[in-house]
Amino acid sequence: MAAAAHDSLTRARVRTAWLFLAPMLLVLAIVALWPLARTLLLSLTDASLGNAGAARFVGFENYLVKEDGVWYGLLADPLWWLALRNTLTFAFVSVAAEVVLGTLIALILNARFRFRGMMRAAVLVPWAIPTVVSAKMWAWMLHDQFGIVNDLLLRLGLIGAPLAWLANADLALWSVIAVDVWKTTPFVALLVLAALQMLPEDCYEAARVDGIHPVKVFFFVTLPLIRPALIVAVIFRFLDAMRVFDLVYVMTGNADATLTLSVHARQILVDFQDAGSGSAASVLLFVVIALLSVLCLLAMRGEVLGRRQ
Amino acid sequence: MAEVKLVGLRKSFGRTEVIHGVDLRIEDGEFVVFVGPSGCGKSTLLRLISGLEEATAGEIWIGGREVSQVPPARRGVSMVFQSYALYPHMNVYRNIAFGLSLAGASRADMEARVRAVAEKLQISELLERRPRELSGGQRQRVAIARAIVREPQVFLFDEPLSNLDAGLRADTRVEIARMHDELQATMIYVTHDQVEAMTLADRMVLLNDGRVEQIGPPAELYRQPRNLFVAGFLGSPRMNLLEVQRGEGGLLLPGGGVIAHRGEVPGGRLTLGLRSEDLHPASGEGVVRGEVTLVEELGETRLVHLRIGDGQSVIFRHRELPGPRPGEQIALDADPDRALLFDGNGERL
Ligand SMILES: Nc1ncnc2c1ncn2[C@@H]1O[C@H](COP(=O)(O)OP(=O)(O)OP(=O)(O)O)[C@@H](O)[C@H]1O
Ligand SMILES: [Mg+2]
User: Fold this and answer.
1) Residue owning the nearest CA to atom 16 of ligand 1
2) pLDDT tens digits, residue range B108-159?
3) Taking a C-beta distance cutoff of 8 angstroms, is the pair B144, B121 a contact?
4) Residue B133 DSSP class
5) Consecutive H or E run containing A137
6) Which backbone phi and psi does A282 adopt, to 5 degrees?
């Protein structure tokens, strides 16, 4: 009797849970699942942007196919591999720099000093500016003839001649990375700052009384304690960086030196009007990110999702 | 060797001064307890001695050295925090050893010291555990072990037992007393638990609002409080404080009783202090008479609340059985030698 009542109560709660979830599942299905499925289907056709209706099913030809002893398709395209390499470089370097700098800034903001509130607000400015705006702003500042960056460096005598920050193939990717670091470090700093403010203050006092060097305290107390927050920041930022589009597209367009997977997919889809191949590029990007996400989650399992011992 | 001396010590946070000039001399090896109501500055005073807070004015001497400009680590003090302040991600061994590594001790030496201290505090089996896998009492021991292992000249305790349950608190209290005998180190201990203060202290320092009210052995503070504040603060239940008048043959109590008093009695307002255990049922008239309003049974004894004249009430400790019942009329005698008299300014006469 009591067990039955308990059962029906559980059932009612499960039903309520689904009821609450339903709107979100519906929205997700419309804005994520449906486009994804359509992209997947399109990637298996030779559709072009103009006549998606007249598309023919071509199997995996957009990805990889062998004709007359020659490989065709995205996976055989050196440009796709270049885009993959650029994207990975961009993601690794920018995230590494953002985490190190973000932690440093968070440590500074966590200290007690005058104008701390103002500083905290100021640090957020780069993060608050829309990406396209800051990308354009930096593109001008990095302009080889009229840019303020070259002007400053020349006056300081650090360079002998103006550098083509965005046109030079050796510099372009690094310039874009630098701007991304400028823009996204505040986000990491804020995450880390939140973690720092949760730290037990008394432990630091104990360390002070025990005379432990601040650097040692940082590496042996602070760092282990903010590790979960750092890992969240890294995963967030890394998966985000893998999709980078607007910053690169506004600053350097379709240039090979900075071509990322997203920019590449757009180029095929819009510039070449090749909906089939462009969709395939999008699907590949999705697969790459999904793989990396799974890897991240496996590596971090238990760290972030609660340690169970 | 490690005496502690405070001279004219003051501390302000911003504009508000919270320590208003404290002078105090603590002998080497002495166990001194700071007590006082919440917010009176006990913790602040302890933190000034440790160096966690910087004094606004005055001097701090530890072991014959003026240390007010010396960083905490070089003052030769160890501190045990109320929250224990253990490093949550380190196991017990590392928690104890972490503060040692700077002392330039070799690894083997360090390990020997940690193990010896762990042995002493009976936490040897816990060395591999993290703090969150320990009970409150065990954490407490780890915190004390961490303080001991550095072999400081002075131990500072800030309400170390307040997070423990009553039984554990009593046990740990005894252990701290034993530890003090063994180490012969100077110890300064903050608490607002009177039992803790009375049992542990060689001398008690009673603070009130950033000032020292009285310094002395516990029995002295209890029996000869300098003023009404000290008299009212120490003892549970609180000392009975009755307004009295000068009369023939002694002091006139509310309700008509008279208690003998030797010596000069000034005019003005007078307050008589009687502790609950110094009152006992009278065979005759008694000095205090009234109606029982409440009986608090404590098992061995019971606290009897009495309403006497003028709406004032008195609590006394009743020992024999059976106890009185509410509504009964009772007369009490008081020992005139134990009675304390305070003048209009609250100073004891
Ligand atoms: N960092 C601070 N900034 C400003 N005021 C403070 C600070 N620390 C303490 N105070 C003030 O100083 C006074 C004494 O505080 P303290 O912590 O020393 O009291 P306490 O005697 O330890 O009290 P408790 O028994 O509640 O622990 C209090 O009025 C408190 O508000
Ligand atoms: Mg305190």
Assistant:
1) B41
2) 888 999 999 999 888 999 999 999 999 888 998 899 999 999 889 999 999 9
3) yes
4) G
5) helix A131-141
6) -65, -40
- Cα(B12) to centroid(ligand 1), Å: 11
- Nearest Cβ partner of A209 from B50, B83, B101? B50
Residues lining ligand 1, Cβ inside 6 A: B 13, 18, 36, 38-44, 192
The CATH number given to A74-308 is 1.10.3720.10
Residue A17 structure tokens: 């849970």
* Cis preceding-peptide flag for B237 (omega within 30 of 0): yes
Supply the residue whose CA is at minimum distance from atom 17 of ligand 1. Answer: B43
Which positions in chain A touch B71 (Cβ < 8 Å)? 208, 211
Question: Do B314 and B308 contact (CB within 8 A), yes or no?
Answer: yes
Q: What are φ and ψ of residue A274, in 5° steps?
A: -100, 90
What's the confidence (pLDDT) of residue A308?
Answer: 43
Burial of A2 (0-12, 13-18, 19+ CB in 10 A): exposed
- Report residue B62: phi and psi, to 5°: -130, 120
pLDDT tens across B272-294, in order? Answer: 999 999 998 888 888 888 889 99
Residues of chain B contacting A203 with CB distance shorter than 8 Å: 85-88
To which H or E segment does residue A106 belong? Answer: helix A78-110
Asked if A39 and A282 count as a contact pair (C-beta separation under 8 A), the reply is yes
Sign of CA dihedral B244, B290, B305, B277: positive
Which among A228, A173, A170 is positioned nearest to A199, based on CA atoms? A228
* Residue at A38: amino acid letter: R
Query: Which chain B residues have a beta carbon less than 8 Å from that of A112?
Result: none
Q: Count how many residues are written for chain B.
A: 349
Give residue B299's pLDDT: 85
Nearest CA to ligand 1 atom 3: B13
Paired tokens of B61: 């001497």
Q: Where are the domains of chain A?
A: 2-67, 74-308
Q: pLDDT per position in chain A (309 positions), as tens? A: 566 777 888 899 999 999 999 999 999 999 999 999 999 998 998 888 877 677 788 888 889 888 888 888 888 899 999 999 999 999 999 999 999 999 999 999 998 888 888 888 888 899 999 999 999 999 999 998 899 999 999 999 888 888 889 988 889 999 999 999 999 999 999 999 999 999 989 999 999 998 888 999 999 999 999 998 898 889 889 999 999 999 999 999 888 999 999 999 999 989 988 888 999 999 999 999 999 989 888 887 766 555 443
A209: nearest CB among B73, B84, B88: B73
Mutate which of B12, B35, B42, B206 for ligand 1 pocket (most atoms within 8 A of beta carbon): B42
Running DSSP on this structure, what letter comes out for residue A39? H
Residues of A in contact with B51 (CB under 8 A): 208-209
All structural domains of chain B, each given as residue ranges with its CATH number in brackets, are 4-232 (3.40.50.300), 236-342 (2.40.50.140)
Binary contact (B99, A210; C-beta < 8 A): yes
The pLDDT, as a whole number, for residue A309 is: 38
**CA angle (A287, A292, A295) in 5-degree steps:** 130
Query: Phi, psi at residue B209, to the nearest 5°?
Result: 55, 45
Give strand ranges (E) for chain A: 65-67, 70-72
Spacing, Cα B192 to ligand 2 middle (Å) = 9
Task: Please provide residue B19's backbone torsions phi and psi, each rounded to the nearest 5 degrees.
Answer: -120, 120
pTM for this model (two decimals): 0.80
Q: What is the predicted ipTM?
A: 0.83
